[in-house]
Design goal:
By secondary structure, the chain is mostly helical. The protein has 9 helices and 2 strands. It has one domain. It is 75% helix and 2% strand.
Length: 269
């Protein structure tokens, strides 16, 4: 259910190009390279993160950061069409007829819901179980996003710490005026690294993960309402209209247009 997110890749490579072009246009790129500054900014902020969070949180943070580079392959409109089809099938063959559709999607949440529906579990019990799954998922996502935001707050601070270290070293050598300019440049590089790390990497990734969380909640909420609607014997047409409420008006219009073009589609009364 995942596919590469083009917006993230375009933004990443576009940002790198613009930054490199801007740095190279007025000076040599090597001027912006300083290993001690990288060590202070990245290493120092990561060390502070380890003090503030446990190791599992840090591991999960790195693991989930890569989710910013993927998006859902399954669109909400596709889910609505799928549940309309499943509702019609359930009316013809009964709920047991949906047993073959448990693995219709590569999604454990969908499979779990369909299995409970086939097992004739009470709709309210199914709703409670699936809503609990969604709530726990949101809590996990918010925790990971919070850890990334915490790192984004620490990176500029350690950039400033690196700058202060550089200024102290520079002021200790005031007897050599020729070293003041290069020393000031090196001192400011850590602030540059900290701002770049926070505003170009961490904050945008946290924002994209918030969007991914909202997308996943929408998908799972559609699955939940679709399963409950079928389990409750809701008319397929009514179920479809109910699920359309999750979509913005523009997508509802597109879905209605596609439906009107299909031939031979009839809903059971």
């Amino acid at each position: 259910m995942k596919k590469p997110d083009l917006a993230t890749y375009i933004g990443l490579f576009g940002g790198v190009f613009v930054l490199l072009w801007g740095m190279a246009s007025g000076s040599e790129l090597t001027l912006f390279l300083d290993f001690p500054s990288v060590l202070i900014t990245i290493g120092g902020s990561l060390a502070s993160m380890l003090i503030n969070h446990d190791l599992n949180q840090i591991k999960n943070m790195f693991k989930n950061m890569f989710l910013a580079f993927t998006s859902f392959d399954l669109e909400p409109q596709d889910l609505i069409e799928l549940f309309s089809e499943l509702a019609r099938k359930a009316r013809r063959e009964g709920l047991l007829g949906l047993e073959d559709d448990i693995n219709r999607l590569d999604d454990p949440f969908f499979a779990k819901g369909i299995q409970m529906m086939v097992d004739a579990i009470d709709p309210e019990v199914i709703r409670n179980i699936l809503e609990t799954d969604i709530e726990c998922m949101v809590e996990r996502h918010e925790e990971n996003i919070g850890v990334i935001k915490a790192w984004a707050a620490l990176a500029p601070a350690f950039g400033m710490i690196g700058t202060l270290i550089g200024l102290i070293q520079m002021l200790a050598n005031l007897d050599d005026p020729s070293a003041l300019g290069p020393g000031m440049a090196v001192a400011l590089i850590t602030t540059f690294y900290g701002s770049l790390m926070a505003n170009f990497v961490l904050i945008p990734i946290a924002g994209k993960l918030e969007k991914r969380n909202a997308d996943e909640v929408l998908i799972k909420s559609l699955i939940l309402e679709g399963i409950i609607g079928i389990q409750s014997g809701l008319n397929p047409r009514i179920l479809e209209e109910k699920l359309k409420a999750f979509l913005p008006k523009s997508k509802v219009a597109d879905l209605s247009l596609e439906g009107s073009k299909q031939e031979g589609v009839a809903y059971d009364a």
